[in-house]
Amino acid sequence: MKSVRLGAFVIMSVAAAAFGQTLQAAEDVAAQDTPLDAGGSITVTWQASPDEAGGKAQVIAYEVWRATRAAGDYKRLGEVEPGKGSYEFTDEKAENGVEYFYKVRARGEKMSTDAAPAGPVKATAEWFYPDRLNMLVASVLLAAFVLYYISQARAGKELFIRRIAGLEAVQEAVGRATEMGKPVLYVPGIADIDDIQTIAAVTILGRVATMIAEYDAALLVPCSRSLVMSTAQEVVKEAYLEAGRPDAYRRENIRYLTDDQFGYVAGVDGIMLREKPAANFYLGTFYAESLILAETGHSIGAIQIAGTAMPSQLPFFIAACDYTLIGEELFAASAYLSREPRLLGSLIGQDLGKVIILIFIIAGVVTAFLAQFGFELFGRSIALEQLFVVK
Amino acid sequence: MRREIPMIVAFVAGVIIILEFFVPALRSVAAQIQKWYLVVIAFAILVGAFNLLRINYMKIRRRRADWPYSIPLIAGLFAMAIIGIGWGIEEGTVFDWLFNYLIFPMSSTVFALLAFFVASAAYRAFRARTVDATLLLVAAVVVMLGQVPIGSAWVPPWWPDWLVFLTPDWLKDRIMDIFNTAGQRAILIGASLGVVSTSLRILLGIERSYLGEE
Prior knowledge:
The structure holds 2 protein chains of 2 kinds. Chain A is α/β, with parallel strands linked by helices. Chain A contains 11 helices and 16 strands. In chain A, α3 (165-180) packs across α4 (196-215), α4 (196-215) packs parallel to α5 (226-242) and α4 packs parallel to α9 (328-338). In chain B, 76% of the residues lie in helices and 0% in strands. In chain B, α1 (4-22) packs across α2 (27-61) and α2 (27-61) packs across α3 (70-87). Chain B is built from 7 helices and no strands. In chain B, 13% of the residues are buried. By secondary structure, chain B is mainly alpha-helical. Chains A and B meet through α2, α4, α5, α6 and α7 of A and α2, α4 and α7 of B.
């Protein structure tokens, strides 16, 4: 059957050629391992058939065929529509280490023409993204700073941490709730536990819960994600245990409301209006609900402490809350509240990273400014722009 | 072991996900870990639903304050689950109708409250009592004027080019592109460093309070 089809194809091509209807093949067909991938992928590129731009026959599509031998049994992988000039097709089903040959067939209405096969080519997995080297270096440096200062803290070195007003106010907020006999509301954001801001919020919850257990106040933690709820229950339970008040722990106060963003807001607002908490904490990832929550909290007269790394929501929290932890302060909060030297050491390392970034920014601004001017060197005029512009 | 196993899992999964950003060959392993996480989430939904059900059932049973509200909540939970599982959730189904004409309008209503809350928060924030608040007020007025057509409507056609810095459009662009962007970038850089530091503390087991341990 295969030979019959091949025969028919040859006869049609010969007949078409005899009547002057030839279809020229795609040009410059090349196949190469797809760069910067996990393997299993080969990219085939080619240029349009000369007939595509006004030849006698018209190209309807370019078909890509694959075989493991140059003269082997080719299998069709897919096709690409004409009209672009240069083309690319990615074979995502290649096996790593196997040699492949690729053929591009220009298909017209009555005939098809194959370009010479490209290959052999093997798919391989790359071990590094060269364009991410700068990020790797920066990450390793920052990690080294953090680890160095943690080791310094372990060795007993005195570390200075600047005062963060929002965190100093945590004790005041919990104390106020205790005196008023009202609960503390803790909202850990609306993202799931895979979000680093939620993890930061849960770690702070542990510190705040210990304080609440010691003061004998009530704690309410409405969650919008089941996993956050499970984690928060465990964290608060341990905090109460540590404070020597396991009897005061109320599992039902750490509850799941809904995953729906505004359903959750309605639920938390309802809790605020019914329970009238004296202190509200909003820590974690927030979106449009930030202001609705903070304004409702303000309307019931609660002392409010917010913290997020979402730049778009920070102005709302700053406007509506008493204290706001801005960006990095949210991540520093757990260490700050714990006062544990090892954790504080990591904050110093983080600050050193900030200083280095600041130096780079200043250097960048200065060089960008100087790049406008030129200078003379050994009688030769040199424009600084030539030195700094990355081509 | 109750503490060590979660810490080991967090370390291994975290290191693979970080390395995958630099090593393409680890992409499939990282994708597998993400799949496991999705499986865990799927089971966690049941935990959440059970928690919701249990708390509201106890509220009704013990006739706690506002217990009647728990009845439509439980009814809604079961109704949506039964309708969704029984008749599907595709377009045109009862579930789809309930979502579009009940849940979606309710969500939109809560979202619409934001407009009123923005007004009340702005009223408080923009009172010119301090230098900071005055600067905030002036910047906000300029940006708002620059965002709407009427803000530039008062600028006559003969307005000289050298006075362009007095037009709301020009000022708004400068405030947004220079001051606002610089501030946002500063916050993001600080937050990114905080993320690296927090991640390190968690991966190395220095920060363990998320496991319920100090």
